[in-house]
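Write out this protein's structure.
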Amino acid sequence: MDLGITGKWALVCAASKGLGKGCAAALVKEGVNVVITARGAEALAATAAELRALNPAVQVLAVAGDITTTEGRAAALAACPQVDILINNAGGPPPGDFRDWGREAWLKALDANMLTPIELIKAVVDGMAERGFGRIVNITSGAVKAPIDILGLSNGARSGLTGFVAGLARQPKLAGRNVTINNLLPGAFDTDRLKTTLAGAAAKTGQPIEAIAEARKQQAPARRFGTAEEFGAYCAFLCSAHAGFVVGQNLLTDGGAYGGTF
């Protein structure tokens, strides 16, 4: 299927590895020019080289910096001639007990996982509407649908973004101008973040990491972890010319782990 987005420009956040990288790779394969951002300059440069090799016909620009800062956002936006596609992504806040979190911990979580996406949306959405095309995908978490007790910071911040997007996405001056905003809610994907989580659980319980990983896989009917490549493919479709009628949705990609009807 031709996704109809060849020649578009995308800004992909936290794209040096994991799900962000998977999204950037899928877009590049579809002929989309990308600006990728991340804090680690070395890993970002390596990813940019990989992406250029996937499709020499597109432009791949790497901007190292912290997207949660005003300066980081300004640099990333300045590098992109126009933002037709925005993929909001940021690492989740650490797990823990809410009794141990002070105001600063909450503000940091909100900055990264709620306010930064909102600021980037604000910077690009009117231009998208003027041009008659725009796709915004926020990578949130399956915890938005089924909160995880030790991830209170993430539950709170990402749910706040979800509520904001629910209202904004349905504004006729956006949806009526072919600008869509949707959220992708990943479950357990084979990424560095998952490996860190599994290693922490293994250290805490004394069990082998392989046993911890296998038990986690059994929590989903698919009986496996997702891959960044398949996540990226799903994201690319949401960014396509064919997805203009998908508006304000929270789309789970979790191998069936969430057991609810709605």
